[in-house]
Specification:
Protein name: Cobaltochelatase subunit CobS
Strand content: 15-25%
Organism: Trinickia soli
Domain Cobaltochelatase subunit CobS N-terminal: 2-33
Radius of gyration: 23 Å
CATH architecture of the largest domain: 3-Layer(aba) Sandwich
Number of helices: 14
Strand order of the largest sheet: 4-7-10-3-11
Structural class: alpha/beta
Domain ATPase dynein-related AAA: 60-186
Helix content: 25-40%
Shape: globular
CATH topology of the largest domain: Rossmann fold
Number of strands: 11
GO molecular function, one term: ATP binding
């Protein structure tokens, strides 16, 4: 519990980012350190913001649309620093007692006694742990005021039931991810999100915005996740998929579509191509059926631009000239 980082490492060497920043790192990994994803691509600006949190104990919030990899970004930074990391999803079922702790009946020496069991916040606060509050803007108001107590850099947590004050471990770090930056469900995309208290938002020292990756990087990630598509035909297919995703994002931004394809959706589409052996059927089952039927003509137009065939005719045309068959590399069969 008194463990602290063992050494300082260069951001340039560890993350390949042109910066002179030195960051703390643990030499040994434990069970709470995330696994390193070698295919993950870092956004330089967001990475520096997260590293500032680890190095200078800043409270860092990462906001952005779904599927951009906000939580994964923090975890992958922690993984390379061997920093223990715990994620808590602030869904509607998380209560104040879950975070702080509560009395529970336990058996000691064959007798039932009432004993206080710490919640995740006091547990993490006393350890060298990076605590991530996922879906931060979906938290209940009573839960958010518990978190507000520890948002100060040296913020202590008072357990009223225990008459005890918990002071943070020197290597405790706090992060959060959100879709709306505390402004609520303005565009109708994120139901269940709340408008956050401005005094609480003001306590976050750094707020970074994570956008979707450039097409080349996104293509590389999909190919890394689905290595069966790593030949020339597979790369061409994935590039068309990523181009399709980019069009849905532009359509969403202009109000033509009510949903969009995230990188996660593209990966699911590529994986489903391996299952169904038909890119068009995989597309329908992965994304199209999630869209409003009134938007299908727009989606079909996007598909025609990227694949050269109408969405409804893709399977027929592909079967006639072998295109759909060639879309799935021979190595994957």
């Amino acid at each position: 519990m008194q463990r602290t980082p063992d050494r300082m490492v260069s951001v340039r060497e560890c993350f390949g980012i042109d910066s002179s920043l030195m960051v703390p790192m643990f030499d040994e990994r434990d069970d709470h350190v995330p696994e390193i994803d070698t295919a993950y691509r870092f956004n330089a600006q967001v990475t520096l913001a997260i590293l500032a949190g680890f190095t200078y104990n800043r409270r860092v919030m990462v906001q952005g649309l779904h599927g951009t990899g906000k939580s994964t970004h923090i975890e992958q930074v922690a993984a390379r620093l061997n920093w223990p990391c715990v994620r808590v999803n602030l869904d509607g079922h998380i209560s104040r007692l879950d975070l702080v702790g509560k009395d529970a009946i336990v058996v000691r020496d064959e007798r039932q006694i009432t004993e206080f069991q710490e919640g995740i916040v006091p547990w993490a606060l006393q350890r060298p742990v990076a605590l991530i509050f996922d879906e931060y803007d979906a938290g209940r108001p009573d839960v958010m005021f518990v978190i507000q107590r520890i948002l100060e850099r040296d913020g202590s947590l008072t357990l009223l039931d225990q008459n005890r004050v918990i002071r943070p471990h020197p290597s405790f770090r706090l992060f959060a991810t959100s879709n709306t930056v505390g402004l609520g469900n303005l565009n109708g995309l994120y139901h269940g999100t709340q408008m956050l208290n401005h005094a609480q938002m003001d306590r976050w020292n750094v707020v970074a915005t994570l956008s979707y990756l450039p097409r080349e990087d996104e293509t590389g990630i999909v190919l890394a996740r689905v290595p069966e598509l790593a030949d020339d035909a597979g790369r061409a297919l994935v590039e068309s998929m990523v181009a399709m995703a980019a069009l849905t994002r532009k359509g969403f931004a202009t109000g033509d579509l009510s949903t969009l394809m995230s990188p996660r959706t593209v990966i699911n589409w590529a994986e489903n191509c391996q299952i169904f052996r038909d890119p068009e059927l995989a597309f329908r089952l992965t994304f199209l059926n999630k869209c409003d039927e009134a938007e299908w003509p727009i989606v079909s137009e996007y598909y025609q631009r990227c694949f050269g065939v109408e969405l409804g005719e893709a399977a027929t045309v592909g079967a006639a000239d072998g295109r759909a068959d060639r879309a799935v590399p021979q190595a994957s069969r």
